[in-house]
Specification:
With 126 residues, the chain is of the alpha/beta class. It has a single domain, classed as Ribokinase (UDP-N-acetylmuramoyl-L-alanine:D-glutamate ligase, 3-Layer(aba) Sandwich). It contains four helices and five strands, in the order E-H-E-E-H-E-H-E-H. Strands 3-2-1-4-5 form a five-stranded mixed β-sheet. 37% of the residues are buried.
Amino acid sequence: MLDSKPTVMCFSGLDPTGGAGIQADIETLFSLGCHAVPIVTALTAQNTQNALSINSTSAALIVQQARAVLEDMPVHCFKIGLVGAMETVEAIHSILKDYEYIPVVLDPVVAAGGGYQFSDTEALSA
């Protein structure tokens, strides 16, 4: 079944409201006939008004999750959303440089609608 659908690896944060982030990526890709492979880059505390905090996933876990999937199944595209911290940027870069032939959709999330800044200054400059 997965062989017939394009597979997209999504690097994105978890929005507990379900209105954005990894859940929105999964739903959008499903509606387009794709299979989403979610790699959660951060957990957030937020509601429909604004975010309150962000806790980045460790770089080692991001790389381990991505490589486990990439070594097991074909991935046709990468989609990058919330990265948050410089160590997350570096982790994703370490994956992308080994899979340069896979297209990348860069859709960076910098801030919540209410103004909370998700990404630190160093990550934004990368």
